[in-house]
Amino acid sequence: FCGMVAIVGRPNVGKSTLLNKLLGQKVSITSKKPQTTRHRIMGIHTDEEKQIIFIDTPGLHIDEKRAINRLMNRAAASSLADVSMVVFVVDGMTWTEDDEMVLNKLQQGSGKRKTVLAINKVDNIKDKEALFPYLAELSEKFTFDEILPISATKGTNVQRILDLAQASL
Ligand code: GDP
Ligand code: MG
């Protein structure tokens, strides 16, 4: 088996940290981020049976004021159809318009891919109630196959993401 999983989210939510943890779990190869028109390869996770290519989808992070950007966003969203799972990463403490923008782009791509909401940096959250206002709003707007509180730095629930990624191939 071989397949692609996209790690998606606005800057600074912890995508790179998560990727490093995902690749650090077992034997892995990291690529030098070659650019393709549709995706940037972030890293490749390999075990005996399966190979998962983790990708970034740069167009999803562009704001839509200019027509060319809208076009790129649409291309990026539809290219996610190649992907068996999307990990949408948010910062557990802060929900911003940029998160909302990325989430809206995610919704535009169709296909039967899975979507996992990874609420990152939970190691930083003392008051778990602080999560709920935006979490309720999120689950109204979008259906997630799984919602996972994670800590990319500590590794909390990172193995679960890897298991879901492998199962999605
Ligand atoms: P990216 O821009 O989405 O790739 O985010 P980075 O992986 O570069 O992380 C942005 C910042 O958040 C860095 O300072 C990380 O150390 C920090 N960070 C990432 N994951 C976690 C986490 O699980 N807990 C905490 N406390 N900080 C984190
Ligand atoms: Mg990064």
Explained architecture:
- By secondary structure, the chain is of the alpha/beta class.
- Helices cover 33% and strands 24% of the residues.
- It has helices at residues 15-24, 67-79, 97-108, 132-141, 158-168; strands spanning 2-8, 28-29, 40-46, 51-56, 85-91, 114-120, 146-149.
- Strands 2-3-4-1-5-6-7 form a 7-stranded mixed beta sheet, sandwiched between helices.
- The longest helix has 13 residues, at 67-79.
- It is globular and about 45 Å long.
- The N and C termini lie close together (7 Å).
- Residues 150-152 are annotated as: G5.
Layout of strands and helices, then pairs:
Layout: E1 2-8, H1 15-24, E2 28-29, E3 40-46, E4 51-56, H2 67-79, E5 85-91, H3 97-108, E6 114-120, H4 132-141, E7 146-149, H5 158-168
Parallel strand pairs: 1-4, 1-5, 5-6, 6-7
Antiparallel strand pairs: 2-3, 3-4
The protein binds guanosine-5'-diphosphate and magnesium ion (MG).
Guanosine-5'-diphosphate binds next to α1.
